[in-house]
């Protein structure tokens, strides 16, 4: 019996071979600190694609140097980055998957050490340590990090334009789809949340005003993309903190973004403030289902989707259109092929050199 997990999925002009995608996962591995992906990134994304993913979304890629989480993060702020990203696209395509990239700015959570390079990765770097000035919607610090500088209207315009320019470079690099990062406490979510956005101008106050920044970004990116190319938005459905964003508000934001040219919502949670979160298998999926229902938009579910039966149920029950498998794929890049085998699905996209392993039971 055919599994819905291994059915094709189409959004705009793009069809993926199955409903198992890899989400963006920061690698903190740009050793020269210039934002240019390296051979490590090519091997990493090649392995995920060859492991059977329908689509691979390249890690959070920043529109400006000061938008990086750490000095070791990827970027698309200059034409020098485009060729390196084209190599990532080629590596993913060679593995049979569609290639996407997440476009972002870390805002007040920028200028930290990075997980691989510091004993205290979530502490702000000083200038002597290679750090830089950070920016946010308001001068409200993320707990444990330095206070950001509140963005001026002129600087907001520059950042919106930088998102558009990064989108144009991503299109030139050959990506099949793009994703706006509006989640996990980075700049666009900082504007959305009343906890981090204390502005009293057109970017603050009401939800409509707080959504103005991400909506402008969506319009600017869409302007620099082919009309039939999919645009996704990653959103945190809740902050798990009193007074923070709610699922209902994020469903409204998703509906507005749909009007602005976004084709699909990628629903995660939290990241704007430290919070105690009770996690369990598929814990974020009900929120993805609610956004799908209320905003009438295709969604991707993510968060401890760690078994083929759970993933199959999520897609088969219509709670989400695709599942994003992250840490499970880091443990085993061939997770989609493993799941196909467990669900007794015959797939023909394992590397031909490896098929003796996938097509037998020994």
Automatic annotation (TrEMBL):
SUPFAM superfamilies noted in UniProt: FMN-linked oxidoreductases
Keyword field contains Amino-acid biosynthesis: no
Name of the molecule in the record: Oxidoreductase
Keywords attached to this entry: Flavoprotein, FMN, NADP, Oxidoreductase
MF terms (GO), sorted A to Z: FMN binding; NADP binding; NADPH dehydrogenase activity
Chain intervals for the UniProt region annotation (Disordered): 108-129
InterPro entries, per the entry: Aldolase_TIM, OxRdtase_FMN_N, YqjM-like
Organism, as annotated: Rothia aerolata
Swiss-Prot/TrEMBL cofactor(s): FMN
Gene3D superfamilies recorded: Aldolase class I
Record has NADP as a keyword: yes
